[in-house]
Amino acid sequence: MSGFWNVWVWVLTLGTLAGCLWLLQSLTTRRKEKLPEDKSTTGHVWDGDLVELNNPLPRWWLWLFWITGIYMLVYLIIYPGLGTFAGIGGWSQRSQYEAEMAKAEKRFGNVFAAFADTPIPDLARNADALRLGRNIFLNRCATCHGSDGRGAKGFPNLSDTAWLWGNAPEAIIATITNGRTGNMPALGPALGEQGVTEVIAYLRALPKLAAGTEPATLAPDATAGQQKFMSFCIGCHGVDARGNQMLGAPNLTDSDWLHGSTDADIRDVLMKGRSNQMPAQADILSPDRIRVLTAYVLSLRESSGAQP
Ligand code: HEC
Ligand code: HEC
Predict the structure, then answer these.
(1) What average pLDDT does range 278-306 have in this prediction?
(2) Would the CB of 297 count as within 6 Å of ligand 1?
């Protein structure tokens, strides 16, 4: 905060307080000996004889105002509130947060450490570990992957059998710890509109080819698309289009589409490319927690009833 705004906050805050207390003082009417005929009124009259008395505030009420003012002053001395002045109490949001986190780590850290030596496949069947994993998942992962882990367009389903980066426990630990970036280049300019149409025709023919259709019987568009696929795509998606988990390049022969399954969806991916990010959790989650979370992710498939 610059010097000017610092002074501005001081003047505004203390000025308002002083102003309120002055107003209170100046409007306080002295307590008078009560005489029955001494009726000071505000001068308002209704219905001929209905008047509004101008009695002083009850003392206890008046004192409440004074106490509030004094409380505010004491608060501003102890806690931060006046510009850059940090208060003499040494309190800050950050120090409170850190103290609470340290306390929680002391309390829960051991709970996770207890699982450190259990193999992950065993953890994935351990009800206590899965309960802890589910809590972390709901807190930190569900915003993107959904509370049931089924994902959404652009955010992978973690409960199915299709994996961009692999589902070996080490692969999932690496995904969560370091994050991942799936880079699909924008190939529209290189392929041209017609080229994109042909490549899509080839992608549509892939399930038929896998089922045994002769390549020679493909439509001309698909055959042209195959040639383009061989020059532009196999470096990442592989000659058989089954993907490459080292690069996070998806299998294009299955029915699982991360970015949508319509021709328009696929055209959009090809024209604009994608740079899809899974954020790294290393700074937020301890290795013990990531192991428990990995077990939970692996358990999603069993609970979703997906076939291997
Ligand atoms: C900000 C959104 C976001 C959050 C939060 C997030 N993820 Fe992801 N996650 C992604 C995206 C996007 C991808 C796909 C990356 C790619 O396309 O290569 C991904 C990929 C993954 C994968 C790899 C899936 C595969 O098919 O290989 C796993 C496993 C995963 N996330 C688990 C988690 C877990 C566990 C958490 C909670 C700690 C989490 N994610 C939090 C967005 C997110
Ligand atoms: C540099 C490596 C690379 C090249 C070259 C590449 N891709 Fe990709 N592609 C990827 C990656 C990585 C993804 C996953 C993007 C993500 O994580 O969101 C992807 C995603 C896709 C998708 C979306 C899949 C889905 O499930 O929604 C399609 C379709 C696709 N690529 C087709 C192609 C075609 C066709 C070509 C050639 C014309 C090609 N790619 C070339 C790396 C590549």
Answers:
(1) 89
(2) yes
Q: Please give the Cα distance from 64 to 56 (Å, whole number).
A: 14
User: Which residues lie closer than 8 Å to 285 by C-beta, 6 or more apart?
Assistant: 136, 140, 176, 293
Nearest Cα residue to atom 21 of ligand 1: 278
> From CA 151, how far away is CA 139, in angstroms rounded?
15
What atom of ligand 1 comes closest to residue 181's alpha carbon?
18
The predicted pLDDT at position 264 comes to 97
* Contact 156 CB / ligand 2 (< 6 Å): no
Whether the pLDDT of residue 273 is over 60: the answer is: yes
Q: Residue 178 phi/psi, 5° resolution? A: -100, -5
Distance CA 161, CA 256 (A): 9
What is the C-alpha separation between 59 and 28, in angstroms, rounded? 10
pLDDT of residue 308: 43
User: Is it the case that residue 39 has pLDDT exceeding 70?
Assistant: no
254: burial class by Cβ within 10 Å (0-12, 13-18, 19+)? middle
Q: Cβ distance 164 to 248 under 8 Å? A: yes
